[in-house]
């Protein structure tokens, strides 16, 4: 509603479709909660990567909740219909999201990296994985400081009426986010491709190896969401309808984080998918790569003792399967529960 000869006094009564689109993203996280529940209780394994996944889930849910709150003020509405008071409130929430998004990305990527290091504990993967985590922490901390102090005093980031304030220009903020987005995209590709050579050396049928690789390739869908967001960052400089065009990058960020968490919950995905026709055979497998030592009702694809990289694990001449089982009950990414016959 527009005031007489003045700016709008409140948001329009009719909610634009873009607002519903942004709000709809939150529904995906119910599935994530189910996946993590299955991961901890059905697969009977809960390790450091699961703790990181729960932390990442909490942060993603907070980010999603803030995104939904933004739609109650201005995001998704055309800017000429948004009251000044709502624009100020939007500025506060946008500032919080600015300061939060790098930490959310770090939590999601670390949970996936540690998961890969836990499932494939070879020297190469552990060293590279640790290096990736350290670099991501450095990038996050160094990138967070200019986001927090983009204005001085800090309150000027959402309140332009503060006198004698100094802020980065929109062009500087765009370049900063572009730099961070490209780095995070490179981290994504590095993490997703990290286990591929090891997976391909597993002693199991090619079809199963392709299935595992395909599950990890879900991460590339998350990468595509991040990649699609990059050319949209210029809305901060070139757009006169900030509140409307800014909704799409916000959606893509939520999608990227959700898919990243799903990629890190692959064992539970296998449990969820096991009853879909064509994904599993009801016949008992005689494949030597399948290990039934865990007893009836449980199966898991185990590393072959003949595997070249497994023989060199920790510099030993042979693979100590018992110690590896104690370290991780999710040796390969597809630990499944078999129905009792």
TrEMBL record:
| Principal location | membrane
Keywords in alphabetical order, please: Membrane, Transmembrane, Transmembrane helix
**Which locations, inside or outside the cell, does it occupy?**
Membrane
- GO cellular component entries: membrane
Presence of keyword Transcription: no
- Decide whether keyword Iron is in the record: no
Question: Residue limits of the Rhodopsin domain?
Answer: 36-274
Pfam families attached to this UniProt entry: Fung_rhodopsin (PF20684)
Which parts pass through the membrane? Answer: 20-39, 51-73, 93-116, 128-149, 178-198, 210-230, 242-264
Write down the membrane topology: Multi-pass membrane protein
Q: Which domain of life is it from?
A: Eukaryota
Q: Which family does it belong to?
A: Belongs to the SAT4 family.
Protein name listed in UniProt: Rhodopsin domain-containing protein
Q: Which organism is it from?
A: Aspergillus niger
């Amino acid at each position: 509603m527009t005031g007489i000869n003045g700016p709008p006094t409140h948001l329009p009564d009719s909610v634009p479709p873009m607002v519903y689109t942004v709000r709809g993203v939150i529904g995906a996280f119910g599935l994530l909660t189910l996946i993590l529940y299955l991961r901890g209780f059905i697969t009977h394994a809960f390790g450091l990567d699961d703790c990181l996944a729960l932390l990442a889930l909490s942060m993603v849910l907070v980010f999603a909740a803030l995104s939904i709150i933004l739609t109650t003020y201005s995001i998704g509405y055309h800017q000429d219909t948004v009251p000044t008071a709502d624009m100020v409130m939007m500025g506060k929430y946008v500032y919080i999201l600015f300061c939060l998004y790098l930490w959310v990305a770090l939590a999601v990527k670390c949970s996936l990296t540690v998961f890969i290091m836990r499932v494939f504990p070879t020297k190469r993967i552990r060293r590279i994985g640790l290096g990736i985590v350290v670099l991501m922490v450095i990038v996050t901390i160094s990138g967070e400081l200019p986001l927090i102090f983009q204005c001085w005093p800090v309150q000027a980031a959402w309140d332009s009426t503060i006198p004698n304030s100094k802020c980065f220009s929109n062009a500087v903020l765009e370049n900063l986010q572009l730099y961070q987005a490209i780095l995070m995209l490179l981290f994504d590709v590095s993490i997703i491709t990290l286990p591929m050579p090891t997976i391909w050396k597993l002693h199991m049928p090619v079809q199963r190896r392709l299935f595992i690789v395909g599950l990890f390739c879900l991460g590339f869908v998350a990468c595509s969401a991040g990649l699609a967001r990059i050319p949209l960052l210029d809305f901060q400089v070139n757009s006169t309808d900030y509140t409307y065009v800014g909704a799409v990058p916000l959606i893509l960020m939520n999608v990227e984080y959700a898919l990243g968490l799903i990629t890190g919950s692959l064992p539970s995905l296998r449990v969820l998918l096991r009853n879909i026709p064509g994904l599993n055979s009801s016949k008992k497998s005689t494949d030597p790569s399948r290990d039934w030592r865990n007893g009836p009702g449980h199966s898991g694809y185990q590393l072959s003792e003949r595997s070249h990289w497994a023989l060199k694990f920790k510099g030993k001449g042979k693979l100590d399967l018992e110690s590896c089982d104690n370290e991780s009950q999710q040796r390969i990414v597809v630990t499944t529960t078999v129905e009792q016959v």
